[in-house]
Amino acid sequence: xxxxxxxxxxxxxxxxxxxxxxxxxxxxxxxxxxxxxxxxxxxxxxxxxxxxxxxxxxxxxxxxxxxxxxxxxxxxxxxxxxxxxxxxxxxxxxxxxxxxxxxxxxxxxxxxxxxxxxxxxxxxxxxxxxxxxxxxxxxxxxxxxxxxxxxxxxxxxxxxxxxxxxxxxxxxxxxxxxxxxxxxxxxxxxxxxxxxxxxxxxxxxxxxxxxxxxxxxxxxxxxxxxxxxxxxxxxxxxxxxxxxxxxxxxxxxxxxxxxxxxxxxxxxxxxxxxxxxxxxxxxxxxxxxxxxxxxxxxxxxxxxxxxxxxxxxxxxxxxxxxxxxxxxxxxxxxxxxxxxxxxxxxxxxxxxxxxxxxxxxxxxxxxxxxxxxxxxxxxxxxxxxxxxxxxxxxxxxxxxxxxxxxxxxxxxxxxxxxxxxxxxxxxxxxxxxxxxxxxxxxxxxxxxxxxxxxxxxxxxxxxxxxxxxxxxxxxxxxxxxxxxxxxxxxxxxxxxxxxxxxxxxxxxxxxxxxxxxxxxxxxxxxxxxxxxxxxxxxxxxxxxxxxxxxxxxxxxxxxxxxxxxxxxxxxxxxxxxxxxxxxxxxxxxxxxxxxxxxxxxxxxxxxxxxxxxxxxxxxxxxxxxxxxxx
Length: 630
Known about the structure:
Elements: E1 2-9, H1 17-25, E2 35-40, E3 43-49, E4 63-65, E5 70-78, H2 81-90, H3 100-111, E6 121-129, E7 134-139, E8 148-152, E9 155-159, H4 162-166, H5 177-186, E10 200-201, E11 206-210, E12 220-221, H6 237-255, E13 262-265, H7 270-282, E14 287-293, H8 308-318, E15 321-327, H9 329-343, H10 352-362, E16 367-369, H11 374-378, H12 386-389, H13 394-404, H14 414-417, H15 422-425, H16 430-436, H17 448-461, H18 463-476, E17 481-483, H19 489-496, H20 520-528, H21 533-539, H22 545-548, H23 559-564, H24 568-575, H25 588-599, H26 606-621
Parallel strand pairs: 13-14, 13-16, 14-15, 16-17
Antiparallel strand pairs: 1-3, 1-9, 2-3, 4-5, 5-6, 6-7, 7-11, 8-9, 8-10, 11-12
């Protein structure tokens, strides 16, 4: 796990080494164990190292191969590197280190860009071929590891984080109004846009080859999520469950490969519980970590948001060495500057709990296992699929589902809320952006199950990707590697080919719950006992039944209550000031009217309030304050 960056000059000139070093230093938090630079002709690569496999100097990067023909700056882990190494050794390759980095280099030398199709892991990489004068960029299947790029003067530059780009003196600086509208619609980014003008994110599951002076990258997709059951699959639910147990244990075993200590997040839920159940058998006494919430000022269903008691019980059952942290309302206020600095662009939901969770783990371990992906693969959000079950056409489905995913601005109020920038963004067709996530229109959709599979694919590409970005950046801010066993290739291929019926049992009785509704997972599960059926069945092999059937609880604090109570003055101080930076982007009167409805208990706009607080801090953090509006 590391930070990578680089420069490819258009005119054949050598890259500015001072700029390259500045870009690399901006990523120092991602790799506290070492720094490396490599320049050859028009290409320069920078690297910050977090040593996980072969912590000796043999693993230093950028790493060279074949007498310097190939140079690699690589961020990630390829968990099947040992199998690939044996295959390459059989072809005559000789290795000098025990790193997966060297295997990635040799794989490219052997198979070219197609090598990425063989990698089972997470990665963002840049590989320079001095003979062919080409720069190869690639990102893992699911987008676990980030990679951004932009034009800077006469060069294309790239980095693991936007701050790496901004360290280049010629990088563009400014806010992208189109990115703002996309975020304020979806509380996420469904395209390659960011909030930073001129800066794009490389899509997940793609690669590209660049030449000096060539056009902007044309990314080639080598993998994509496709949820569809196998044709004529005669396996029984019990047989599927047995295969899932085998693949899941195999995935966790792979993700435990490390030369430094590995820990695991542990909530009271199914996903992290499954991982800890298996990991504790393979590594007795593994360290586990939970973040809970002080509920002294919470109310209603938010009184159930603290999962420490459930996690403590699971820790006892699994024999883990367990550590906890407790978050209070004021903790969100204190950490907001650090969260904005490291997360850079806001993504799905309130992300500050991840900041504290990563901080807790980093005191003890350099690698942690996360349960992300379990919900998206196995149908963990059934209340989101109710529209799909009732659809009769693809166009109708898109219309209904699109309305659901407008998370921040109430219907019909976009022009009002975005008034300061509306003239620059009114041309955008947000419904078409939404539709674009699905790719080509499906030829034939007949059953509710087929529509639900569209939902699962959509959420894996968008919502899960947002979660992965939050986890990566806030963990790497602490020099911590976040691993995701559910996103093992074989496990994903199995899960995406499962019939919907083994994931969701009450498909025709789904309930409508608004995304802003607090405690929606608990409400839904208490009323249906639905979602992730096969995963719960598998977990029953390791833990008592009452753990398997526990209701889902997302990792979020009681912000609905806190924004109206302990944090109300913080909200007012930041958002009721006419000169607040955020009002250079959004209309103050329109937004504060919505905020007031929340503070008065008439509506729940917790997601909007978090986003306003974030943007209010983001503008000065990245030097983009343009002055407030009355």
